[in-house]
Amino acid sequence: MKTSRILISLSLLFVFFTIAPIFAEGEEKRTNANLTGQVLSQDGESIPFATINIVNTTIGTATDETGKYSLANLPTGSLRIKAQYLGYKPKVIEIQITEGETKEVKFELEEDVLGIEEIVVTADRNEKNRKESSTIVNTLTSKLFNTVQAVTLSDGLNYCPGVRMESNCQNCGFSQVRMNGMEGPYSQILINSRPIFSGLAGVYGLELIPSNMIERIEVIRGGGSALYGSNAIAGTINLILKDPINNSYEFGAGSGLIGLGMDESGGTAQDHTVNFNTSVVSQDNKTGMAVYGFYRNKEPFDANDDSFSELMELNNTTIGGRIYHRFDTRDKITADFFNIKESRRGGNKFDMPHHMADISEAVEHNITTGAVSYDRFFREADKLSVYVSGQNVDRDSYYGANQSLSDYGNTKDFSYTAGAQYNAVLGETNLLLGIEDNGAWLTDKKLGYINEEGTYVDNRIVADQASNTFGSFMQYEFDLSKLNVSVGARFDHYTIEDESNGSSTSGDVLSPRVTLKYDILSSLQARASYSQGYRAPQIFDEDLHIETSGAKKVIHENADALEQETSHSYMFSLDFNKQLGTSFLNLLAEGFYTQLDNAFANEFGEPNADGTVVYTRVNAEKGATVQGVNIEANFVPSSKVNLKGGFTIQTSEYEEVHELNETKFFRTPENYGYFALDWDPVENLCISSTGNYTGSMLVPYNESVLRESDPFYELGAKIRYNIKINGAKLQLYAGMKNIFNSYQDDFDSGINRDPAYVYGPTSPRTFYFGIKLGNMLD
Prior knowledge:
The protein is 5% helix and 57% strand.
């Protein structure tokens, strides 16, 4: 199977790299048709770094620090020029331009303080105005990351309705995101709309990705599976990486003190970060390059003074970039690359080798990701996209206790995505067609060692799995007066081969999706959707994490007869956006209901002679149901104050008793929420306050007891001040997370502790401070 999959991927690469020269039309004809102008707010203030695009072409630029822009050598005739910037409504001006002519076009943008008309891409794999989208798309921007002091992706995800980050291991800090009450594997993580983040990378992936490489995050709850494939049952999280649109730079450095003022821990752990971003664009705007880097060094933290860490030691170095080139006015090739080197360790005796510690859970990642995409406009507005991306993960690991030599391991994982999609504009309707091939090979082994008798024990293969999913998808969208209708479907054929036990599984899945949007009023939209999704019975991310204590080790396995899980998801929402005098208000109420057939559940085994406990993944015959309501509010009473918040009320349970004779999903609170407040009392000064509420939940302890946690209220505050320096800004900031230290106080302790008995906020009280310098700071 590996040979055939390699041949297919090489064929797709060959097609990809030969298609661009075929479509490219050579050098652009020099028309000397030029465009200059400026982008202003309604108050006459210049808007720096606003983007300027020629609609249905690949031509674009950005304004400088004074809001001015210029474009040279444009195609002649009728052109539609679009200007847009975060916090303002996009505006399009149509002009006529002839050869040798220079025109000036000035834009005056209207404020969009609620962000309801920003451009999103995740709803239907194509750029679209958020208000016009038939699917609710939540956007987490760099401004929000700054407000909540999000160092990595995981720090910012709590500030979106229905989304909650949780920690699942005292030792190594294994974490996952829950959407609408469902575990991490039910959500699809995308990078630039491609499902390239593998299951192995996803074990710790949300904490691996630094926020400074992300332009924004687009979140869709439910309904994404028809376009994005398996695992998009709970929703889709799309990471849009920074794009080179102008000449810019930013540098930052910060430090944190974890556990400040906690009596039991006896000290604090330091957390230091350094990051940079820069981009360069050629004078003719045909070529651009962005480069980013990140370094982090975090000490382990012991919350209960038992010499074992509750927060792991972490070192992370990330470097990456994006480059594009326009062959002519209607096509563009873009390449992305990033490498993450990370090491993390939890347990005790950090100054000794892993096998000399009482407990050590440690991994070293070397993750290399590359992607190439080619975009070409046809006819007036049709667009073809062809893409290939791959990710290679090399992981060294140790999950062991009591000076064990048998627990060193190595995992190698390669995954790829290759596909093409064509978006056709047919009058007032849109038709999207696409094919996609996703493949992965994973080999996990335990390394050889010399046992107590002096005998060499050879390497042992734990998992050797290859998977492939070939899918085709379509979506058709049309308007009927105030009603927007979008119908789509995806057909997948998947094959999973496990060479370690000689098993093979395959299946054919049709996943339909229907979404409706009705404009009740210009300020009130109703949306409804139905979608079907699935999860194939393969190795999942949490299988590759092993919980370790001195008395036991927990590993995950699939039952021999494990069948595919299928979901039926229904959603309904009301979205209200209104200007009330000088104030702006957005209210969203969203109901969701998901039925899981053959839902995956765990059966806890008994410890064997070596203390190993097996969690066997089985199908819950009567399925499971997840239902609830997400509420979101965004209130802007003036240009100096912005308040947003969200709250979720839900239930998640099996139809029959399962784990520990319980029907409810574990670690899933029935209510949780957040708020974020920005206040600009004077120019260049911003004061922020943030908060998270986590309701009580059921948490298993030692696979035999269920405990109900207390609710938690986290409160944070931050102050930042900008100093203008020769066209750039110097920003000084300081703040505190979890001010009142609302943190778990009954961690299990000692060598025989249950490391999975973790709940509530992911970190205790933390004081932080830092500095930024750049020409694009908020």
